Amino acid sequence: MQTHVQHLSAVEVEVKIEYSWPDVQKDLDQTYQQLQRTATVRGFRKGKAPRHVLQQLYRSRVHEQVAAGLVERGLLNAVREHNLFPVAAADVHPPHIHEGEPLRFTATLEVQPEVSSVDTSGLSIERVEISVTADDIAQELERLRGQHAELVAPDPERATQADDVVTIDYTVDIDDTPHPELGGQSRTWELGSGRVLPELEAGLLGMNVNETRAIDVTLPEDQGQAEFRGKRARFTITLTEVRHKRLAELDDEFAKDCGDFDTLDALKAEIETQLRSNADRQAVSALNERLVDALVEKNPIAVPPSMVAQQQASMLRELAELTKALGSDFQWTEDMQNDLNRRAEKKVRVGLLFGALAKQAHIEVTPDDLEARFKKLAEESQTNIAKVRAKYQGRERDMLMSHIAEERILEYLKNQATMTESKTAPAGDKNL
What's the gap between Cα 423 and its chain centre? Predict the structure, then answer.
């Protein structure tokens, strides 16, 4: 068998394989011998049918089986001989066996790019300190007030206002055609939450209980069902109930309702502690993201499309679970799809660079490292370490080891990078 590999790109190779006729004939002979032992042919005892009869009956099937086996064996040999790392099934047209002739075929393989070295020199990163202000604490208190608010009917009765929670029945016509499947009964919407189309929300304001209104809206171009995008829809809505939030007073009693706090000051202190902890994690996450971005920019490498597709599929599965948790009102948009594609490609690229960098910098996770992490997890969760070990088996164990390795790679990059003077940004700043 002869193999020849030609790199078509950094992530694709062409493999040409040739078997001599004696090699092909050897496999044919073995296959016919095995078939002769098992085949039942009318007029012959089992195992006694001559080969020329078997050839007449099973030639096509035997040739197909032998050719498939030779293709598989040839590709495996080429992968080992040329140190290839395939990431998807080979694209190959099954060859045909011709009596007395060599068997030749060509396959294309998508492979991991060879990252011979990772350049970590000259990385310059800005470290950002995230501030926690009195306004942040006040906002969190207001969020807690809203969370613990009591929903009550207005007394006396009144029309709907911003921030009310309304219950409605509605039907939907699109381009004057009724769509019963889009309607709903006893649906609850919170006005001002941003989950309702602005035109609908404006139409709902000022309604009274038992009032019915027809509200015309233009469905957004990024709404979930493609066939309705940009079309004119009429919602015929009947308001069945309106309630508003009765907020608790900010006092010691409210603090007790929020948890194990005797005073409002104790609640504020805990809120500040949590916000500062979150701010610290946000700052570390932002710094790590900058390190990764700088590394990717410094080391442009090609990524195999199949690996990106696999990563997209994994992220979509996670998103499907999140979508289910968020409910039917969640809208999957084209911008979100584009963002997912971008993040999937980046994740694959970073994974390849991190793998190469781990080898280059001799970063590895030992059994002792894993045991130390088990001990830490047991202490943090106040759980017996044996239970932690039992939890992290198989795939979970591999994921934990990958996480530890990633932490060490990021620490290595921080030591390689130049950190510029920090600046202060507010908590939640999306431009960190």
Answer: 32
Residue 248 DSSP label: P
CA 320-182-202 angle, to 5 degrees, is 100
pLDDT (tens digit, 0 to 9) for every residue of the chain, 432 residues total? 899 999 999 999 999 999 999 999 999 999 999 998 888 888 888 888 889 899 889 999 999 999 999 999 999 999 999 999 999 999 998 899 999 999 999 999 999 998 989 999 989 998 888 889 999 999 999 999 988 989 999 989 999 998 899 999 999 999 989 999 989 999 999 998 878 888 999 999 999 999 999 999 998 876 667 788 889 999 999 999 999 999 989 999 999 999 999 999 999 999 999 999 999 999 999 999 999 999 999 999 999 999 999 999 998 888 877 777 666 555 667 788 888 899 999 999 999 999 999 999 999 999 999 999 999 999 999 999 999 999 999 999 999 999 999 999 999 999 999 988 766 666 666 555
Give the number of C-alpha atoms closer than 13 A to the C-alpha of residue 401, restricted to the C-beta side. 18
Phi-psi region of 252 (alpha: psi -120 to 50; beta: other; left: phi over 0): alpha
Determine the angle formed by the axes of helices 395-416 and 367-381, rounding to 10 degrees.
100
Contact 115, 356 (CB under 8 A): yes
Global pTM?
A: 0.73
Q: How far is CA 294 from the centre of its chain?
A: 22
